């Protein structure tokens, strides 16, 4: 997975250049949260938005894609994707708080390090856009 994210500010939103694997990781994280049947309140705590907003972002991330593509995201949507990448691994904790790598990888098709790296890349990319 690419470890860098190209992001430019476009008014109040951002244009993010997503590699296919990056879009897929964001999609898998968000879709996993919806599969868990969280209430809108729980989703809002996890990602800052309810089911309707998450569904809307999922529709824009759905693949398959073979080439990088630009996706325009509002700040709230960027926050939603970042939060999903950081929240989903916490749903794979076994007894004693040990992370269950194999079930995570089987369900999501990625390793936790991929989610962590992409979440970090989002923050790094945004840090260069404030003037």
Helix residue percentage: 40-55%
Which class of secondary structure composition applies to the elements? alpha+beta
Largest beta sheet: strand ordering: 1-2-3
Spans where pLDDT lies below 50 across 5 or more residues: none
Question: What is the rounded Rg?
Answer: 14 Å
Q: Strand-residue fraction?
A: 5-15%
Helix tally equals 6
User: What's the number of extended β-strand segments?
Assistant: 3
Compute the separation of the termini in Å.
29 Å
Global mean pLDDT:
93
| Largest sheet geometry | 3 strands, antiparallel
Which series of helices and strands comes N to C?
EEHHHEHHH
The shape is globular
Descriptors:
13% strand; three-stranded antiparallel sheet; alpha+beta; 131 residues
Report what the structure shows.
The protein is of the alpha+beta class and 131 residues long. The chain is 55% helix and 13% strand. It has six helices and three strands, in the order ββαααβααα. Strands 1-2-3 form a three-stranded antiparallel beta sheet. Helix 1 (20-35) crosses helix 4 and helix 4 packs antiparallel against helix 6 (112-127). The longest helix is centred in the first third of the chain and has 16 residues, at 20-35. The chain is globular and about 45 Å long. It starts with 5 loop residues before the first strand and ends with a helix. The model has no long low-confidence stretch (mean pLDDT 93).
SSE map:
Layout: E1 6-10, E2 13-18, H1 20-35, H2 40-47, H3 51-61, E3 69-74, H4 75-87, H5 101-108, H6 112-127
Antiparallel strand pairs: 1-2, 2-3
Helix pairs in contact: 1-3, 1-4, 4-6
